[in-house]
Design a protein that fits this description.
Two copies of one chain form a homodimer. Chain A is built from 15 helices and ten strands. The longest helix of chain A is centred in the middle third of the chain and has 27 residues. Chains A and B meet through helix 8, helix 9, helix 10, helix 11 and helix 12 of A and helix 8, helix 9, helix 10, helix 11 and helix 12 of B.
Chain lengths: ~350, ~350
Amino acid sequence: MSTLREQGGSVGIVGLGLIGGSLARALQGAGVPVVATDPSSAEAARAAGLTVADDVAGLAVQRPDVVVLAVPLRAMRAVAAELAEALSGEPGWDPTVTDVGSVKAPVREAVSDAGLGDRYVGAHPMSGTERSGFEASSVELLQGIPWAVTCAPGTDPARLERVLRLVTGPLGGTAAVLTDELHDEAAALVSHVPHVLANQLLGAVAGAPVRDLALRLAAGSFRDGTRVGLSDPRRTEAMVTENAAWVAPVLRLAARDLERLAEALDSNAPTHWFFDRPDSVRERLGRPGGTRVTGLHPGDGAGLSDVGSDVDVVPLTGDWPAELVTRCAGGAVVFALEDGTALLR
Amino acid sequence: MSTLREQGGSVGIVGLGLIGGSLARALQGAGVPVVATDPSSAEAARAAGLTVADDVAGLAVQRPDVVVLAVPLRAMRAVAAELAEALSGEPGWDPTVTDVGSVKAPVREAVSDAGLGDRYVGAHPMSGTERSGFEASSVELLQGIPWAVTCAPGTDPARLERVLRLVTGPLGGTAAVLTDELHDEAAALVSHVPHVLANQLLGAVAGAPVRDLALRLAAGSFRDGTRVGLSDPRRTEAMVTENAAWVAPVLRLAARDLERLAEALDSNAPTHWFFDRPDSVRERLGRPGGTRVTGLHPGDGAGLSDVGSDVDVVPLTGDWPAELVTRCAGGAVVFALEDGTALLR
């Protein structure tokens, strides 16, 4: 049995929205000491049994081993500066700093600019709902889900290990260890662009003369295709603009493809190229015993992770972070740390 | 209590795939006499307790009051011709012909070319799953769902009424009475284009260097945004190509919007216009007591129909089909026929 310290020790959470609130509930539920702070949700969080500090300085007094920045992307820079100031007032406190932002390179930049780059490991839980705020948070949202955990050439392996132990231990999740760039490229494809297209579908209906009729006829394909379009548009916009460098090329590709398809439709030209192109992904997602998770409420997030693959073992020696990035770039994930090794599948 | 005859009488179903099979199960479950035919599913359908004729001629011998063409769009023309031939061998048989195709104008053309235009009323159940075939059919799929029912200037009101009684009676559904064009325009927005964008999302990942990693990180937004992209690509392609005239302009609009958004992202220009545009639809779908149906399995189709609206009554006299089209074009639906009137909400 590993001790709490081995699992990542105590955790401070700055921001108790949907993700921060769910993280606090899940960690506390798993027996991890948690202290959180969020002026707008303090009362509700205390009512939910969480320990809540008045502000970042108050959280710093508790000297948690890991501090998670769980604030909106636009607030990362300011909160990182607050944390840096609190740190200077707590000599000897040596926390690892991580976050739960949906884009990683800009968060590393913000945290580094605050002087916390050496302490930082990026993290992104791949789960969510179209709702926001502490009142939408739940103990289940972040349990057993896939995470991306990001590092850079200078990342302290001990800090990376601490975050991996939190994710794969009390949170029961898996972690793809990646560079910020790999994360941001993949997240553009499977999260940010899906959010954009959901907004496009809603926007096209909003501007159509047959809007009300169309909504009356809307069924499963529209409901599912637009679900995340019901999210707070400012949250979606921040996610997309912060990852502009990776999102824009995927949108240009989509624009070109859709224009080409429209031309083919207008001229009765072949359209197989468009509808057959996803075959390799359809096959992967539909594989028996494979990846598609079913039976979930459409409002819940959950990974489409593989099951039943072979287990791979990487010793936590040498430049093991780089080794994990290589494996995870190819689709592997860490599901446990044991006896000085990372177990991947 | 209305008699079965008033509810639409007996029903013949040509084609026992996902929709035809579900229709047969639902009608039979509601006590409506059903005879069906489909060479590829006959055995399974008989095992499920359905009455199955060997072919269209065998179905014609049973002289059902309504014949539903529940075959793929590409087979409509051939099956309509088969039915016309069977009709000529059954003097005095006077069935109403309808269908369940996802596009309406091309089906009316096919049926009219077979000489069945005077008997025809178009229908489209707004429900489905990404699966296909009789084995995917269920008694629930078409129960209590929104339908589009389409007519043209020459439509026989008695035949329209018969189809409306089937939809709102034993099937427990609602019907938007529309022209083919109104249906095809709205269906492009809420069904056909969502299917195209789901294929676009899958296709972009299929072609990406980080494909396997991206699928590992994929969560709720990708799962929901691509669900219908797992459908049989030939079925999706047929739906889209048959409705090319309405789909292509919506795709061009999307291509233009996405290109514009990419440009804004590249140049740090404002993007509010894109993310705020769906506000009117978000408001409608999120309205308390409003339209969003929750708690459904993502694989099931179901309408986002309004509840709690006022009831409107249209007497079935004069040119009532045109009156219903006017009301339904604005977002109303028929939920019952009673005492010589249509009840709308």
